[in-house]
Amino acid sequence: EDAFWRQRAKTHWLQCGDLNTKFFHASATSRHKINRITSLLDSSDSLVTNNIGLCEVARDYFVDIFQKQNSIIDPVVNLINPSITLDDNTMLTAPFVIEEFKEATFSMKPDKCPGPDGFNPGFFQHFWPTCGQEIFQQCCSWLATGAFPPTLNMTNIALIPKGDSQVSMKDWRPISLCNVLYKLVAKVLANRLKRILDKCISNSQSAFVPGRSILDNAMVAIEVIHHMKAKTKGKLGDVALKLDISKAYDRIDWIYLQGVMTKMGFSDQWVKWIMLCVESVDYSVLVNGIMTEPIKPSRGLRQGDPLSPYLFIICAEGLTALIRHAESSGDIHGVKICRNAPIISHLLFADDCFLFFRANINEAVAMKNILATYEAASGQAINFQKSEIFCSRNVLQVDQHNISTTLGVQAVLGTGKYLGLPSLIGRSKKSTFNFIKDRIWKKINSWSSKCLSKAGREVLIKSVLQSIPT
């Protein structure tokens, strides 16, 4: 009974804490209430409350998102430099060994949500001595033939609420629940891909590359913004543009992804394996436990697929290539905080983007064109209404207004948070970082702590602290 409610509660942080059914039952009940969809606005802004109507609204929403649009990839792909060598491709396409699949199997958390087939990782871990060899042979056979069984890559989309109120589908975050057998194949490929990411991913990208930390870009961003805040003299002002990308993973164009990998130098065999994983998916949306009719997408990457984070940052190299080309041609100039410091033109952490350029109309127009070119190639959609700029203090108000109007974004006194940390730190450090204390107190005073002993509460506090600033 304890194991059943532990799986239902999804409280993975409690591995060393209390093991009481009361806590897990309360967690599962709370999750069920929070995740239940009671009403949604459809495309005509009519309120839908019945389950059949809710399923139709959810399915129509994702059909529109996953529908391919015409892309123009050459202006971006042609700027990407080859970086993958023959030795790299030999390693990527080398014959598979059973140890790779065993490592992939046991690297998953046993109680992770299963896919449509209902088997979670714990099942395969428990029975690996019995079925491991057969799984290995079957997975190798699928990759050798270049085809998956029809049901292997079926994926359920679970909806997680965002914010305090959920009115439309935009207020729900989709999480893809893949079959574990598919995830084994994808994880083996992802583990190989990780070894050569530092060769094809620029230093401005700090996400998912082994050896790079989330704090690298966060600290650089804070230093640059601090420099801009203190810059009161000089004719050359600076601008920091923080982008908000709408549905970043869901809109990635498959032809663009294939073109970028090919231009980087990945072999045809490797590209074929990756595109097999990406293009063979079928979706069904879970609405209050009801599965919608299947959706056959023509673009997008799944959040929940082991390959998706690495494929996304490979696609983001197109934006880096465009910015570097504009820098080399003198169309934009990055920020340099001191004489011996490097020039910073952009900082990326997956879909969190910070771009820097000089405060004049010409560079604002150049940056706008770069973003439009990237959107047309990759399928990405930048939400300029939620994006914002911060100008150094030596930039006149009229110039700030002209730049913000040109870009279609709002000018702000600070740039909010970047990667969970405040990008602008004022004189009062206490007020700046007070959100950390508030988050901890919210957890301590929540209903869940009432079901825990003092030792369990200690584990809860540590888990919250370790999750900051993510």
Automatic annotation (TrEMBL):
UniProt signal peptide: none
Top-level taxon: Eukaryota
Cited InterPro entries: DNA/RNA_pol_sf, Retrotransposon-Effector_Assoc, RT_dom
Residue ranges of every copy of the Reverse transcriptase domain listed in the record: 141-411
Pfam family, one: RVT_1
Family annotation (PANTHER family): NON-LTR RETROLELEMENT REVERSE TRANSCRIPTASE-LIKE PROTEIN-RELATED, RNA-DIRECTED DNA POLYMERASE
Designated name of the protein: Reverse transcriptase domain-containing protein
Organism: Trifolium subterraneum (Subterranean clover)
